[in-house]
Amino acid sequence: MSPAPQSGTRLVNSLTALSDPTHQEWLEQVLHLALTHRQQGGRPFAALLVRDNRLVASAVNRMLENGDPTRHAELEVLREGCQQGPLAGTIVYASGHPCPMCLSALVMNGISAVYYAFDNQDAAPFGFDSTASYQRLGLALKPPPLPLIKLPSPIPAATLYGDPSRE
């Protein structure tokens, strides 16, 4: 197995230096982080935690590296972010729509909104769809428990989720 990928903080520091990054710019950075992590052998997911348009924490999915199914990017970014103080009022940028486990943690910690690139329909052809989990748990997303905002992705879902051996 390749060495563990870095948390990605260095990848987004240049964006943090900007005076007022847009939601789209944050999303592009989280996608870059997720794609880099995937290219290094990890799962294709990343998350950023932002307060007042400043980066608080960044993380990638660590399920493969740690053999722990709870090491989703959103939970990892909450773990890292809470070391900086309370999470209420922060924004999460994620490569994909949060699964029920992650969404619950985001709600419980007072995250004000989630901006993401790919929804379950985008991820389904690649086996990264959590729709069945929402259905089995009887969880409806209408109305959403917090703002869940899909932004346009600069890359297709296949670039992030597709078979890396075909590149």
Automatic annotation (TrEMBL):
Concerning InterPro entries, the annotation shows: APOBEC/CMP_deaminase_Zn-bd, CMP_dCMP_dom, Cytidine_deaminase-like
Tell me which stretches of the chain form a coiled coil: none
CMP/dCMP-type deaminase domain: from which residue to which, for each copy?
Answer: 21-131
Q: Which SUPFAM superfamilies match?
A: Cytidine deaminase-like
Share an example GO biological-process annotation for this protein. purine nucleoside catabolic process
List the transmembrane segments: none
Source organism, top-level taxon: Bacteria
Keyword match Glycoprotein: no
Which PANTHER family would you find in this protein's record? CMP_DCMP-TYPE DEAMINASE DOMAIN-CONTAINING PROTEIN, CYTOSINE DEAMINASE FAMILY MEMBER
Q: Which CDD domains match?
A: nucleoside_deaminase
Q: Which organism is it from?
A: Aeromonas encheleia
Record key words, sorted: Metal-binding, Zinc
Q: Does the keyword Kinase apply?
A: no
The name this protein goes by in its record: Nucleoside deaminase
